[in-house]
Each structure stands twice: as C-alpha cells, then as structure tokens.
Fold:
Amino acid sequence: MKLRRTRHEGWYEIMSACPICGHKGWCGINKEMTIVHCMRVPSDQYRDTTIGRQYIHYLDPDRVPKTKVEIEIVRLVEKKPDFHLNRVYRALMKELGLSEFHLDHLRNERHMSEEAIRLREYRTMPDRDRYRVAKRVISRLNDQDDLLGVPGFFVAEGTYGPYWTMAGESGLMIPFRSIRNEILGWQIRVDHVPLELSLKGHIKGEILEEVDPDESGRRRAKCSLKVQDKRLEVILTEKDKKECYAKTGQFIFSVELKQAQRYWWWSSSSKPNGSSIGSPLPYHLALPYPCLKYWEVGEDPSALIDCSEVWITEGPIKADIAADRMVKPFLAIPGSGAFQLALEPLLALGCRHVVLAYDADVVTTPEVQRSLELCAQFFADKTDMSLSLAMWDISQGKGIDDLLANELVPQVSKILD
Structure:
C-alpha cells in the first residue's frame, strides 16, 4: 500500500487502492491502519470536508492491509496567497506557448474558436528543458524564492547544484480563474494517459510493460498476476474485463486493464521545495470568452455579466465551452462532492440561483446521487439561494459540453426553492 503524509497528524492519503472502495485517490487511512476515511462507500459515521463527505470505516483484523507499506516522504512548502500565485502564473503564461497539437484538439475536437482559445490562455506543458522555462520565469520576478510555495515548481539536484524546474506530465495546461480573474492553479490534460490495473477480490498484480495495441487499436500490456500462490504473466487488453467465479457462483476475483486519469492537478507536493495544490483546491469561474477582453485582474465580473444565476459543473474546459454556448457564468468544481468550495465565491458574486449541471450519469451513479442530495441539504442550511438541476438523456451527451455540441439544451428543474 502506497501512502502520502497529510497535514493532519497521524493520517495518510491512500495513493494505491483503498481497502474499502478499491479506487485510488481521495481516501485516507490512519497511522494504525485501523480506520479508513472513504469517499465512495457510505457508512453511518462520516465527516464533511471541502472536497466532499468522508465515510468512516473501521477495519476488522482480516481487512487490515497485509502488504508492504510505502510512505511517501513529502517536503512541502506552504502554498502562497492568491495574489502571489497569480503573479507567478501570469509570468509563466508569458514563457509558454500552445502547441499545434493542442491547438488542433481545441479547435477541431472541442469546436472552440481561435479567439476563444487565445483569450482563455491555454498553454502546453513541454516535455523537456523545463528548467529553462523556470529560469525565464524567475527573471520576470524579483527573486528565485518567489517560486517557493507555488504548486508545480520544485528544486531538483543537478551536477552543478540545485536548480528550479517544473513537475507534471506533458500535456494541455488549463488555467483556473478566481472570481477576481486571478490564476490560482492549473490542470493538465496529459497527452499519454498511463494504464493501470483494476483489481477486485483475491488477486494481486502489476503492469510490467505496455506492448503493441491490438488490431482495433486498443492498448495492451504485459502484466504479472498473483492468484493465491500462483504467479503468471499475461497480456491484457484495455477494457477486456476478466472475471473468475467458483462453481457455486461465488465471486473470486476480477481484473481489468484501463486508462488512468487524463486530467491531473499541476502540483509538486512530492518534490523537494514543492507545494500542494490543495488547502483549498481551486475552483474555476468561466465567463463567456468575449468578457475576458474586458475583465481586469481584481475586478468584480458582475460588471460584465449577470451573476445572479450561476451554473456549476465539473471540469474547467467543460465550463469554458458551456459558458460560451449558453452565455452564462459557469463555476467548475473539482468533483461533484466538492460543492462546499463553491459557497464563498457564489456569495461574493451575489448569486441567487444555482443550476447544477453534472454529467448525465447523475441518475445512475450512486456516489453522484449522494453528492447531489448532500449539496441540496448544504445549500438549504447555509444560504437562501434557490437550487435547480439541469438534466438530459445520456444518449444526447455525457457532459453538458457534449449536449451543447449537439445543439441541444438541458431541461432545468428546481430542487430547492
């Protein structure tokens, strides 16, 4: 089990599969390995956080992880204030461009106009010579220490001593804007999504190497699997799930090769003199792109567009596209359970009506359904805003950006008056 230290003494973030839900990310475990805070499997006890409800599970002796525990040593620097992050990130914008590959993706696959792409200031994270970019950013600032506490930057050791560089996979960089047009963070849409194994039941395994894809283009990998005392090497194909049942019909195990996350926070929390993107995680306010020409840093956007109604969705590009097509302000949060992050900016904007535009699987995914119920209760308790839900059939598009690309609009139903 891979763990990462958190700011809370005696608690770790689970970087491998959670022993309760089997997923990676967001869940935590205590130092004694007896209590898990799981984000996905409900229990009678829980604690609410800005990233969602954490359900408390007590591990019985048979479920305490028996595998080797690897604790990631994190040498974090406290994240700097918003004004400092904005200053550094805007200096970075001047040193990075947008590759033709990413421009083509935004233009032809996302159907964004050239002007919208330019005004939204997407960038490309290069795959080499990042230290040169960091050096040029420093030259635009007062001191190299200005990069301390800025997520994404860290210090590496070189032949001639330490130097500043940048973390993360190469890919499309998407800026997160505050309600005052400050750039407070980035997500990277990685170019080459890594493969991972989804294992359930009495099985262990790891990916040894990726091999050539099959005839239909599906990715494949050579994997090492351990079932009971037997170890074998097999070639698995992406999305080809293997399941094993006993003669009695009892489930024994399943294994599936699938792509990992495509979108990652640009952070350097595991690097020397790096910083975490969290505490708190950024949100992103997306205005219709013509507004960006007139939106100065520090300015209230209410002077440019009516913010009495704000739509909430997941994902910054999705919010950007939806804001352009619907000509409304959209607030992107990092997950359906992170609705608490939206409260402060919504209040500051003077919002009176919130429309939740989650993906169409909201009606079929239990975790999202629970988040929706908690969100409605949260807004009822904390605000006098009305709350509505935007709905559509999943056959018309998974996200609201897909729906709008098909020249359709959602049905809006009020759930909290």
